[in-house]
Design brief:
With 154 residues, the protein is of the alpha+beta class. The protein has three helices and seven strands.
Length: 154
């Protein structure tokens, strides 16, 4: 697999370090990344998203959802049962930590734990100052009328 060196981007630009960091994360070959627990990311509306994580065997007290420095961190740990003897153990309840990097203005609005699924709802809330706004264009005749009135007054 190819690896890319983004060092020239860091040397030649100012203010694009977030994009370079994102590219570094995407192209990183982390073979130790676990696929446990499985999850879905769905777009529920134009600016709304939902992350659903399969957390069978965990209670609400075992789960932790935290937002820290533009990252959503979902973790869980369960105390080991010392007196249980399994003939077959197919339900994994091992501890995990899953991180999701959040884009600017994306906030977590809530979380729910239903039927072994942890649902985390997110919304992109763009501030009013950053939203596009429409500028009204004044008609040419209205501008000429103001000029005529100014000449007659003076």
């Amino acid at each position: 697999m190819r690896t890319y060196d983004f060092a020239p981007l860091y040397r030649a630009t100012v203010g694009f370090d977030q994009i370079a960091d994102l590219m570094d994360r995407v192209t990183a070959t982390d073979t130790s990344a676990s696929s446990y627990p499985p999850y879905n990311i769905e777009k529920t509306d134009d600016d709304a998203y939902r992350i659903s994580i399969a957390v069978a065997g965990f209670s609400d007290e075992d789960l932790n959802v935290e937002v820290k420095e533009k990252s959503l961190i979902v973790s869980a740990s369960k105390a080991e049962e010392t007196n249980t003897s399994y003939l077959h153990r197919g339900i994994a309840t091992r501890a995990f930590e899953r991180r999701f990097h959040l884009a600017d203005h994306v906030v977590v609005t809530g979380a729910s734990h239903v039927d072994g699924m942890l649902h985390i709802d997110l919304v992109k809330e763009v501030p009013e100052a950053l939203k596009p706004r429409r500028i009204e264009i004044a008609a040419q005749k209205a501008i000429e009328q103001d000029v005529v009135e100014t000449k007659t007054v003076n």
